[in-house]
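Form 12-C: Joint structure prediction
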Amino acid sequence: MLPNLNWANGFAKTWSPGEEGAQKRLKEFLAKKTADYDSARDRPDEDATSGLSAHLHFGEIGPRQIWAAAHALSQDSGVFPLNNGVQRFLTEIGWREFAYHLLYHFPNTPNQPLREKFNEFPWAADRTGEKLRAWQRGLTGYPIVDAGMRQLWHTGWMHNRVRMVVASFLVKHLRLSWTHGAAWFWDTLVDADLASNTLGWQWSAGCGADAAPYFRIFAPVTQGEKFDPKGEYVRRWVPELAKLPPKFIHKPWEAPIEMLAQAGVTLGENYPRPIVDHAKARAEALAAFKSLRVL
Ligand SMILES: Cc1cc2nc3c(=O)[nH]c(=O)nc-3n(C[C@H](O)[C@H](O)[C@H](O)COP(=O)(O)OP(=O)(O)OC[C@H]3O[C@@H](n4cnc5c(N)ncnc54)[C@H](O)[C@@H]3O)c2cc1C
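Section 2 - Result
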């Protein structure tokens, strides 16, 4: 079902190695995207973030250079203090520093939860590996999750909001260990970074520093409708659903049969039905968290 494209084909759009490209990206980002960054950074259907993560990871640009350039720009243009977008962007750079701080002080966290209690978390059994494979290949039946996983496969990058959604889906809806997700990201992300990847996964699983509270279970349909309101992101990465209207593109199983037929969608044949029921999975995840007594 998933076209057998070469993973490396889409790399070039994500990252061309080199310091010159990194500086160019930073300049363009500061000049054109900071005004809206604060709100648009959560929209995977827009090209609203800096795309600097791989350059940062490979040391082609440093956080101090970014910090200095952002402040210089603000003073040049007389916008002082920094506008919200620049401030927010520098906060994200700060999260990266925090990730490194944690990895330095807790070097076992790529494999072990920072909160030890989570060693006892009742992960679900997936003996055949079927659920993990469906997640990896973007065949879960939840369009926003599938779009993210396919973007990752085809380009080596995934939007941050969608990283949070797919991570929450793996650990809370499928109740598979965050270490499986971290390992897949490690193998497939162009910006794979031990510190940031560990922080992101432990945050999503609720077992890290400043982690997402256990009851925060991203509802994939709501996330899709909120952050990809017209369904453009899903249309780009899940072409099977491209002809569905915005109202149903994040929940094709609710579309009337005639509409599905008109859009060329046959659930269970050319696009999967949801592999888990959201309400049931949510209730089971909450019960699992309660059993840990970490509340
Ligand atoms: C489960 C999960 C796994 C992740 N794995 C990685 C990873 O392996 N490598 C990686 O670089 N980022 C990772 N992130 C963080 C974030 O998704 C990416 O840094 C961001 O999407 C990169 O796109 P950008 O450069 O356009 O970001 P921008 O929004 O332009 O942010 C600027 C820079 O700030 C840093 N940054 C932004 N958000 C975060 C964050 N939440 N944590 C740490 N640093 C951040 C990055 O260096 C980024 O390049 C992960 C997030 C999650 C939820």
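Section 3 - Comments
The mean pLDDT is 93. Residues 11-105 form a domain with the Serine Threonine Protein Phosphatase 5, Tetratricopeptide repeat fold (CATH 1.25.40.80).
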